[in-house]
């Protein structure tokens, strides 16, 4: 694409900081850079017409980790590492709420409930046995007991009669969150260019040259905030992971309220606008879902529909209104990767499916590397 003098001069010359990705991490990085360097020219590049990846496609869970997830993490991490992970998620949610305001993201602390299928009775009993120990372990984070046993008040079928609930967890409106974050970025005179894909970059002594699908230009500093999509540029423990979701049409007198998950977190659902939003099933085809291609599969979508019918809405008539997918970034370790790659290139990736919880904080930390 041939740029005019005016186009290049106005949008692509004398760029101090370029952020790739306009999701939660990228926008928070751009805001932090502008706050620290008010006179700097900050540019954000986004490959989609809206933020791609998972920032506008997630389920809107403000979660910190279920009791079975904490137990599983303790098998592969030291206790202080697990506490640090949960603390980072807690701090990230508080930072997000303070930055945008609860009303602007429709934050509701309705509790997060871990359900246990009848076949998972052993896991339930193990979690119940360890409940007191894990509450004590995470007391420095929550300042109170987080996990408690609660009844299956929503009468889900083929589910153990009790949940294990984290009373501190909540939910938010993903669309409102990103819309208000975009407003804040624009208010701070930060430029966002959409439908721009970065194809390659090379570093000089005092700058980075970028080649995109539309043009080439130089920037003083480059920040990669594309999570699972960044695997094409980075040689780190990071791979894409597609997550599929569906949502029902409005259901009259829907009683379900809160966020829920089961089968070790591979399935999750919540209420929103008198509907049920349900996602998961990646464990049915882990290799096939290790992709950066958006879309859905019949295998997983049919499984999600059967869960609605057999477990969640067994005595209620419902229709599925739409399905979609988002691309996460995962790895063997759950701790996000926030580091300098060279003198002028930095990355903040691998949210591990916890982008809402940690994304805002990771964006801030990414900017603070400079």
Give a written overview of the molecule:
The protein has helices spanning 5-12, 24-36, 67-76, 79-100, 102-105, 121-137, 139-142, 174-187, 298-312, 355-367; strands at residues 15-20, 42-45, 61-62, 112-114, 147-151, 162-166, 170-171, 191-193, 198-203, 208-212, 216-224, 239-248, 259-262, 267-272, 275-280, 320-330, 337-340, 345-349. Helices cover 32% and strands 26% of the residues. The protein is globular, with a radius of gyration of 21 Å. The strands form three sheets. Strands 1, 2, 8, 9, 10, 11, 17 and 18 form an eight-stranded mixed beta sheet that branches. The protein has an eight-stranded mixed beta sheet with strand order 5-6-4-13-14-15-12-16, with helices on both faces. It is built from ten helices and 18 strands. With 370 residues, the protein is α/β, with parallel strands linked by helices. A hairpin with a 4-residue loop joins strand 17 (337-340) and strand 18.
**Shape field:** globular
Overall average residue pLDDT: 95
Strand content: 25-35%
Radius of gyration: 21 Å
Count of individual beta strands: 18
Largest sheet: 8 strands, mixed
Q: Which stretches of 5+ consecutive residues score pLDDT under 50?
A: none
Q: How many helical elements?
A: 10
Portion of residues within helices: 25-40%
**End-to-end Cα distance:** 32 Å
Element-level helix/strand string: HEHEEHHHEHHEEEHEEEEEEEEHEEEH
The computed structural class is: alpha/beta
């Amino acid at each position: 694409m041939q740029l005019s003098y005016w186009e290049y001069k106005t949008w692509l010359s004398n760029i101090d900081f370029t952020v790739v990705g306009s999701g939660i991490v990228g926008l928070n990085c751009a805001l932090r850079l502008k706050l620290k360097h008010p006179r700097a020219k900050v540019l954000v590049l986004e490959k989609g017409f809206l933020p791609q990846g998972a920032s506008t496609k997630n389920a809107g869970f403000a979660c910190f980790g279920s009791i079975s997830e904490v137990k599983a993490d303790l098998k592969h991490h030291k206790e202080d590492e697990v506490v640090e992970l949960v603390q980072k998620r807690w701090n990230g949610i508080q930072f997000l709420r303070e930055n945008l305001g609860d009303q602007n993201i429709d934050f509701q602390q309705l509790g997060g409930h871990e359900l246990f299928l009848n076949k998972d009775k052993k896991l339930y009993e193990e979690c119940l046995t360890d409940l007191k120990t894990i509450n004590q372990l995470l007391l420095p984070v929550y300042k109170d007991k987080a996990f408690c046993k609660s009844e299956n008040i929503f009468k889900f079928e083929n589910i153990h009669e009790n949940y294990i609930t984290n009373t501190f967890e909540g939910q938010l409106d993903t669309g409102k969150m990103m819309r208000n974050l975009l407003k804040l970025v624009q208010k701070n005179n930060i430029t966002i260019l959409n439908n721009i894909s970065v194809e390659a970059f090379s570093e000089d002594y005092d700058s980075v040259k970028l080649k995109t699908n539309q043009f080439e230009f130089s920037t003083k500093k480059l920040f990669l905030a594309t999570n699972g999509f960044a695997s094409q540029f980075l040689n780190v423990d990071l791979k894409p992971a597609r997550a599929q979701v569906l949502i029902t049409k409005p259901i009259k007198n829907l009683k379900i309220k809160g966020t829920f998950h089961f089968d070790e977190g591979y399935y999750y659902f919540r209420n929103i606008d008198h509907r049920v939003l349900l996602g998961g099933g990646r464990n049915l085809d882990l290799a096939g879902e290790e992709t950066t291609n958006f879309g859905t599969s019949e295998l997983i979508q049919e499984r999600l529909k059967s869960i609605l019918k057999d477990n969640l809405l067994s005595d209620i008539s419902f229709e599925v209104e739409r399905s979609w997918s988002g691309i996460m970034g995962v790895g063997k370790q759950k701790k996000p990767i926030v580091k300098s790659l060279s003198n002028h290139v930095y990355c903040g990736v691998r949210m591990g499916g916890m982008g809402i919880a940690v994304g805002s904080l990771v964006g801030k930390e990414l900017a603070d590397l400079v």
